[in-house]
Amino acid sequence: MNDTAAVPAKLTGLLEAFDGVTDTEERMSMLASYAGRYREVPPSVAHRPYPEEARVPFCESEAFVWALPGPGGTLTLHFAVENPSGVSAKALAAILEKTLSGAKAEEIASVNPDIVTRLFRQNISMGKGMGLMGIVQRVRDLANSTLRERSTP
Amino acid sequence: MSAISERKYVHPDVLVSTDWVDQNVKNTGVRLVESNEDTLLYSTGHIPGAVHVDWTNDLNDQVRRDYITKAGFEALMSRCGITPETTVVFYGDKNNWWACYAFWVFQLFGHTRARVMDGGRLKWEKEGKQLTKETPAYPKTTYRARERDDAKIRAFRDDVMKHIGAHKPLVDVRSPEEYTGQRLHMPNYPNEGALRGGHIPGAKNVPWSMAVRTDTGEFKPAEELESIYLAGAGLKPDQDIIAYCRIGERSSLTWFVLTYLMGFANVRNYDGSWTEWGNLVNVPIEK
Predict the structure, then answer these.
(1) Is B245 a catalytic residue?
(2) All domains of chain B, ordered by start, with CATH?
(3) Is the pLDDT at A122 greater than 80, yes or no?
């Protein structure tokens, strides 16, 4: 399977922009800027305490993900990061919301968790990297789940 | 919590309070160093004047699993505007895990003018003290470091094997779930990094968190530490002790507590820790 073939253009463009940033400080600054744009799931979608089924497994930043069906087979994504120190998780959540929310479920399902490496490079520990990949995987699982439901008669 | 001077530590000068830091942010003889698990945290706001030392990029060699060399340390000191006379004050997230880790690495190069801010970021933030996003720029310095000396405070796997053979004390500072092999990482973290679970034979489980107050991040007074490490774990200050965790960050905190707050003379940090021991072929493991 070619995971990058149908990746939403917004995400592809953002990843290419990050690929061009070789300076570590600049990359960190960009990621921190995204963390500042993180928006928590609205109360119309979920209230605290958030349901366990929305929790990203083994993510120390205590991330939660929701995917709501929209028109034309699209999905609207929402995130919550409960650990106040989970800045990297907030940055990733903001990036995923900006680039994937509103895309078709098929496109979202094609996103590879390896994008975490392209975004954060070596500026992340193995454990945290796996937690962040877990967020992407959770988004992908929700998209796949939607696709399965659609195909079920 | 009582003042640091009232907690009866053996080396109380190694700790500074948040108030002391607040009063010394413009002290040219002091350099604040922030070290966090989440390396983006510094960019979102830090103590005015603090520089960022990233444990993954700045302290570790980027090819070998090892720490930076003398030249790397000198370059880091130059970039941070630190001289051998500078008092370096470390602080960070996660109850100062990475602050203690950075402190420990600095000791490999003999920078003894080093302190830890009691309570770390947690206490500073809870007190509503100032944070800034402005990155300071200091004139580069010329720092002549000694060669890295691992012998006194760092243990390698062969040292651990000898330690086991000599029935000397080991302290496993991980969570009880990791110690028993139920998990390969802390609760809520992904299971990664080791093929086998359990602990090094003979190691006593004294989780790092027992040494700090989780609500404020401050270190517990000497009396409480003695009850944990002396009465509870049966350790003695004159023993040759090796502490370990998963990659050496949590055990840096325990090393700091035993060495400075309690005055133990011979404590080494096994930074290979469980990500090495749990992957080694044919080494003994207990569950």
Answers:
(1) yes
(2) 4-126 (3.40.250.10), 157-277 (3.40.250.10)
(3) no
